[in-house]
Fold this sequence. Notes:
Chain A is α+β, with helices and mostly antiparallel strands. Helices cover 32% and strands 23% of the residues of chain A. Chain B folds into 2 domains: 23-121, Translation factors (Elongation Factor Tu (Ef-tu), domain 3); 127-259, Rossmann fold (3-Layer(aba) Sandwich). Chain B has a 7-stranded mixed beta sheet with strand order 10-9-8-7-11-12-15, with helices on both faces. In chain B, helix 4 (144-156) links the parallel strand 7 (134-140) and strand 8. Classes of the chains: A alpha+beta, B alpha/beta.
Amino acid sequence: MIFKVFKKQELARLYELLAVNVIVGPVGRGNDRHGKPLYDFDVVYDFDELALDYTQTVHSPKRFVLPYQETLSTFAVSRDAWEKHVDLNVYRPLVFFGMHACDINALNKLDLVLAQSAYPNPYYMGKRKNLFIIGIDCNPEPQCFCRSMGTDFAIHGFDLFLTDLGGKYFAEILSATAFGLLSQINCTDPGAKDHTLYKQATSGKNKHYTATVDTSDLTKILDLEFESKAWDYWGEKCLSCGTCANVCPTCYCYGVEEHVDLDLKHASKAKSLHSCNLIDFAKVAGGHNFRPKSASRLKYRYYHKHRGFVEAFEESLCVGCGRCGAACLADITPPAVIASVRGKE
Amino acid sequence: MQNKLHFIDILGKDTGAHRKEDPDSFEYTLPAEITSIYPLTATEKLYQIQIIDPNQRNRFTFKPGQFVMLELPGIGEAPFSISSSPVRHGDLELCIRAVGNFTNFLAKVERGTRVGITGPFGTSFPLEKMQGNDILLIGGGLGIVPLRSPLLAVLENRSRYGRVDIMYGAKTPAELLFTYQYEEWKRFDISLGITVDRADKGWKGRTGLITELLRERIAQTASLRENTYAIVCGPPVMFHFVCKMLTEAGLPMQKMFVSLERRMHCGRGKCCRCNIGSTYTCLDGPVFDYWSVMNLKEAI
């Protein structure tokens, strides 16, 4: 890996160099009812719009690679034939300016299932491969348990990663494009002092975590505690609203619906992201529901994140961003659920 | 403009083989036509579906137990087990019960309707491994639908298998499927046992549970011989009792195969709707050996 350092004011120049492309970044979205600022990712048109010191966005960046709703194909239908047209809905590269390590790792995890396993999903891949990602370091929020999930640092899946060293940024470079960009601004190789500052910054971050999840042997414990009463406890609280999946950076489950156009000559097939907590998730034609109880659906969500995905890809699907717990109207958080399933509460 | 990022077209010109590892195969649907519709019962119909292009039709190969996604543009797409023999390639038979929005629409279409076929998907019954062995084919209700493909494949290669027993049960005589073929199947030196839960006036056959048929079969040989395989398709409650009985008769779990049913929206391990615990029914199934099923939470 190649490292560089540059003064903070150079970042605006870097932005200007990239401004010929569409840039997405963290922006302020007012305050919540406690007066805490809210952030989200959106297309930006000016460097000053970027809120690079953001805490955490309410939504994850996933909608830029996995839109909540997407047309998969359209049909031209005539009396005795039809023709299918497929559009991947990606037309230009996208620059992501300021993504935290958890979200970068979330995209890496989505790659495992959507791009690197059987039947790669071209709608995802087209958008994913056309992302230029500039990562930025963060300070842990109370809900963050990324350190427990091993996703507090990103080692791949970005082009450039910036760490704040006070007056300057420490840059990790992972792509030739990023290297070419940095050669157009004033930057230098890091010295011994920069190394020390970088190490201080990362160890300082580690001291701020308050939320933790004990992941040791979790796959087996989830099997052992499959009939645990803890699931019923949380299942009774759960509103089955699907908000957790909505804000989750790695929830990718979906449903497909087809529609006929008013002229009866055209039709379309559209995908919408779904949630395994919604009541109809596993309901089949004829009315049988494989997971009729909210407890069984909530359990399945944890099972998929922390057991099923581990079995398939040797790592958990959860990145520990804590968005689901922060957004949950019933105050269900992964650290509390997993601790109670372990019998620690 | 030197910093304008290069756009990457993931469906470059080099692709186009439509293999399952290629991204362009994801939404690749084969145009097909419903060539005939034959009502089997009040709610089930047998659809003959032919892939229109002769080359695509011949290249379409599947193994018994696999399923296809059947699409009607604008109406929907759903997974169906293939009921025909693999030697017929892309000249498929799908037996479909009118039970949901899509299948009720399908019940109203006429022959000649253009549909789309994607697949085949999923795992299959290991018929090659079963060669030289005795085979028990046990179906309950709609379970005969995924069972018919391995059944026809076994009959077409009858000499390669030992003793073949087919056991099939339905709730009532009116719900029995493929009744017109029973005599034909019997000509292949097999034993065919049919039972219904509730008889009606004209019914001259057996009444009772399918486990009764199985008990009699097991009693004939005291225990199941080592070289026996079983294929079990039916409702979860049937799996439970039949597989338990087979286990007690000495059949190892890895020699029993079941076909499971779940909701599916993609068939490609992406929508997660068919997940059972940690497994995709569409990729790792629908055919599982009984050991895998026992090992899965909430499978049956």
